[in-house]
Design goal:
alpha/beta, 3 domains, seven-stranded antiparallel β-sheet, 17 helices, 16% strand
């Protein structure tokens, strides 16, 4: 039966997603207007397309074109730089910006396996967005098929597709990193300065209560009625709140399309493409997109000498193909992300026990609810508030946070039950009356990234542990109670053949009905074959440690086994952050970048300080 449930879940999910993403008749019938769907959006699109010719003639980023480069005798195109940064996201982007400022006498190159989609070429629908912007086109799953993994694979990395959430690493977690994992810097004023610096660059702000969308107001109202903790969420979004009111609840994950992003006085999401990578560009850094690193190269003494890889001219060329390129460099910073950084190190011959292990994913489940009134769930900021009542269920910092959920038609309704095609379509016609919340677990237990011997790609070996499932269950039930207290007419549970709550007029009968749904859900459980798990946060696979026995890198991000090699991304974390890891990743990258500058200046006999 478990195998049958797994097959049913897989096929039902695929069928629902394909239909919801591509059916124009459903979009029209359900009231989802597509892009653009407001006067502000139309104005924004008009400005964007009118400026397309200018954008083509004077692009925001210019990338190396290797199409006419002749290869050397070994068949590889030869490039050289002083410092090579692999990855352009929250880690690599920050490092690039810092080093370009602090070391103007060094040549810098940033390489990215994904591609840059300027505003006039950015995806405007769910299908194209996932295929162009995400790892494996948004289809990556854990090896056992129990969990879907969403990770950015584009210029700007996770900052391009992150939903704006910009928490700093909590003090409780920093204390754990220090006391339990020996990372004393985690509680230092210097690291706090790094977190503050990247927060300032990201222009972090919070919304006022009347700026929240329907899913967030459910959290506000339900939490208040239950007497639970509810806080506003910091975001790296600039401009007026109303610039985001008509579009962001659906499209934030497909690059920023905030209305008015091209209009003076408005704004949008502050990805690293707008800050650190722009700083690097202005200071002469070179950029190469479509470059998939196959391995790092070292001399006999263990000094890094560069990287080999395959270059594709455009996304139409199949991944894993392209022209062979070798980039020589004196220093290499690997910022390929938690999924890819350990694979690059493994393929390069490194063998530290921690490389690929300690994978944390912040596994999530969803709580979808239906309301009498229209909710227009695609509008407003996706996550502007959070319920934090259940973040410490074990009194050791593990639990879950409850936040709003992206409401693209496919992903946002993925947990609607499937009884038949007709029944599903009837439920989907209520799309304009739905809200969704995501329950994000700070996982105590971990998995690992393994190297696929055939494809050379990362494979995710991860199953949500019973310990973490218990926290997800308690927090899911809490989310259902929040929706019930806020007045939901129906509440769907994220399990195959799961119970559905439907509100009754009689108060006592209604309470009994709700309690019965919760009891049935607990009895079914959040099984691997029956529950729809997801992950948008990946951490920990090259963790820092004070010794090689405790981590793959030292406290400054230097890889223990080689010289001149650093890691600067979320893979450095010794444990899950417990909050959206974007700012933590950027803070760690700033920390590593400052250390790199110190190392290089020491080698050159210059002053050893780096704080910009």
């Amino acid at each position: 039966m478990a195998a049958l449930r797994k097959v049913f879940k897989a096929f039902a999910t695929i069928a629902r997603l394909l239909w919801a993403r591509s059916s124009a008749s459903f979009h029209a019938a359900a009231g989802f207007p597509g892009y653009p769907f407001s006067k502000e959006g139309e104005e924004e699109l008009k400005i964007t397309m009118e400026s397309a010719a200018t954008a083509e003639a004077s692009p925001e980023f210019v990338f190396e074109d290797l199409g006419h480069r002749a290869p050397a005798a070994d068949g590889a195109i030869q490039l050289s730089t002083s410092i090579l940064i692999i990855g352009s996201g929250c880690g690599g982007g920050v490092v690039a910006g810092h080093l370009a400022k602090a070391l103007p006498h060094h040549q810098l190159m940033v390489v990215e396996k994904g591609f840059w989609y300027p505003k006039h070429k950015a995806p405007v629908n769910e299908r194209d967005g996932l295929s162009k912007l995400y790892e494996e086109g948004g289809t990556l799953q854990s090896n056992d098929g129990s969990l879907a993994v969403f990770a950015g694979s584009t210029w700007g990395g996770g900052s391009t597709i992150n939903w704006g959430v910009s928490w700093q690493l909590p003090a409780r977690t920093r204390r754990e990193w220090n006391k339990k994992y020996g990372l004393q810097f985690a509680e230092s004023p210097e690291f706090q300065d790094c977190l503050d610096y990247v927060s300032n660059v990201g222009k972090i702000q919070t919304w006022k209560e009347n700026d929240h969308n329907s899913s967030n107001m459910v959290i506000v109202n339900g939490s208040h009625r239950l007497g639970e903790a509810c806080v506003t969420v910091p975001q790296n979004i600039v401009g007026d709140a109303d610039a985001h009111n008509k579009i962001c609840g659906a499209f934030c994950a497909l690059t920023c399309k905030g209305s008015g992003a091209n209009i003076a006085g408005r704004g949008g999401k502050v990805a690293v493409t707008k800050t650190y990578l722009a700083d690097a560009r202005e200071r002469g850094a070179r950029f190469l997109q479509g470059f998939d690193v196959t391995k790092l190269v070292f001399d006999k003494r263990g000094n890094v000498t560069g990287a080999e890889g395959l270059w594709r001219a455009d996304p139409s060329e199949p991944a894993g193909t392209g022209r062979k390129v070798f980039i020589s460099a004196k220093k290499v910073v690997v910022s390929g992300g938690t999924l890819n950084t350990p694979v690059i190190l493994q393929k390069s011959g490194l063998s530290n026990w921690w490389i690929g292990r300690n994978l944390h994913l912040h596994p999530v489940v969803f709580c979808l609810a239906e309301w009498k009134e229209e909710t227009r769930p695609w509008e407003g900021s996706i996550i502007s508030v959070a319920n934090t009542e259940h973040t410490n269920l074990d009194n050791d910092g593990h639990g879950a946070v409850i936040e709003g959920m992206l409401m693209l038609p496919g992903l946002g309704t993925a947990v609607l039950p499937w009884k038949s095609s007709l029944d599903f379509k009837k439920r989907m016609l209520r799309y304009n009356h739905l809200t969704n919340q995501v329950v994000i677990c700070r996982d105590r237990d971990s998995g690992r990234i393994i190297l696929d011997p055939k494809s050379g790609k990362a494979r995710v070996e991860y199953t949500v542990s019973d310990f973490d499932k218990s926290h997800l269950m308690e927090s899911l039930v809490a989310t259902m109670k929040i929706n019930h207290a806020a007045g939901a007419q129906k509440i769907y549970t994220p399990v195959v053949a799961g119970p559905i709550y439907e509100r009754l007029d009689d108060k006592d009968a209604d309470k009994k009905a709700f309690d019965e749904v919760v009891a049935k859900l607990r009895k079914i459980g959040l099984t691997n074959d029956g529950c729809s798990y997801g992950s948008a946060h990946q951490m920990g696979t090259c963790r820092m440690g004070p010794t090689p026995r405790m981590g793959a890198c030292n406290e400054k991000g230097k890889v223990w086994e080689r010289n001149g090699l650093y890691v600067a991304d979320a893979s450095l974390m010794p444990a899950s952050s417990g909050v959206n890891p974007m700012i933590t990743t950027q803070g760690l990258a700033e920390w590593v970048a400052r250390g790199i500058v110190v190392d290089i200046l020491k080698e050159e006999g210059a002053e050893t300080k780096s704080k910009l």
